[in-house]
Task: structure prediction
Amino acid sequence: MRKMQQLLGAASLIIASQLTQADAIGLYAGAGVWQAEADNKADIAALSVNDIDLGDDSSNFAYIALEHPIPLIPNIRLQQVDLDLSSNGATSIDLDITHQDAILYYEILDNWVNLDLGLSARRYDGTAYVSNGAGRVKLNVDDVLPMIYAKAQFDLPFSGLSIAADLNATDYSGDEITDASIKLAYESDLIPLLGLGAEIGYRYMSMELDDLRYLDKELTVDGPYAAITLHF
Result:
């Protein structure tokens, strides 16, 4: 809890001291597929079973963001990831950890080097089912968590290419999340007033959620992703 308060305080001070915004209104949107794979095996103490392989899943995601030049008012980004991990066998698991993010952020730098800092709220809206011969466990994964948000982007001049990395993280009331990605993106300006592009990247997410307390291990999910993007 103390660590999260320190992180939120530091982010607020940095944001308040800068407050650089976009030069014009811009709308950004994207949708893609994440080949998410659980890198570790689950131990379910409640059912006395160990080393369950959660497998992988092709997860859909989408986002939309609005940036503007109005001072003091933050930009906003909304995004959702549909994430469902499952395993069949003597012990079966169906873990739905779909989540939505509402992010308020400021552009601290806005040129060929871009830096965004802000705060976000993540809402988990899913369920977890675990069953074997010893019984069945069902838990609702339903929580809203405060997080810090950061994104750095480097534009390669005259190419339409950029390299970016972003982070959502929290350590709050027994919940710990690190959600980070790195990507290579391309945006074309051939169509007036419309930037059509694509990006490929890699996303890493580790979670220790109080709602998933039946898991004896931290859950780590990562893998490559690809998306189509629009910029108006």
